[in-house]
Amino acid sequence: MTMNMADRVEFNLNEQNIIVSVGGEWDQFALANNAPELVGEQVIGLSVLDFVSGNVTRQFLQSLLQLVRSGSRPIELEYRCDSPLEKRFMKMHVSLTLSGQVRFINSTLRIEHRDQACHISKSVQRGKNTNIRCSICNLIKSSHDWLEPEKISAFNTQAHTGLQVVYGICDSCAQQLQKQYLTQ
Ligand SMILES: [Zn+2]
Question: What is the pLDDT of residue 35?
Fold first, then answer.
C-alpha cells in the first residue's frame, strides 16, 4: 500500500465501546490490508474489543479508554502497524467528543521499507515456541529483549511459513501509557 492510503484513519466509539462511525481512509486501509471484511459498513455496530487479539492488549485498550473518558485532555500514542514489506510508524490520537464518544484518529508518521518480507501470522494457540509480539510497537520478544522480527533467530527458519505469534504489550509500550496517566 502507499503512504497516502493510510494518512488518516478514524473511528468513533460509543460508551459501550461499539464502533458507531468510521472515517478518513478507513475503507482504503482495510482493502489495502486484504481485509475486505473490515470495510466500514461491516464493522459499525461491533465492539472494538472484538478486533483486539490477546488479553494483555485488550486490558491495555481498556485502560486507554478509561483514561480518555476520565481525563480532560486527549492522549497520544505512537505505535507500529507493519506489513510484511514495510515498517509503518503511526500515531494514535484519542479524544473524548462533546457527545461523549471516544474518537480515534490514526495517522502515518513514516514508512520504512524492508529488503526482505517478514511474514507474521497469529498463532491459534500458544505453544512452547510461540513468539510474543507487542501489539503497539510490533517488536517480538526474544529471550530477554524485544527485537525487530528480522532479528529473531526463529524468523530465519520460519521465513517462508511466517513467524507464529501471540499478541501482548512490551514493557516500554506499557510505560508509554503509564506516562500519559501521570501527566493527566
Ligand atoms: Zn511495544
Answer: 74
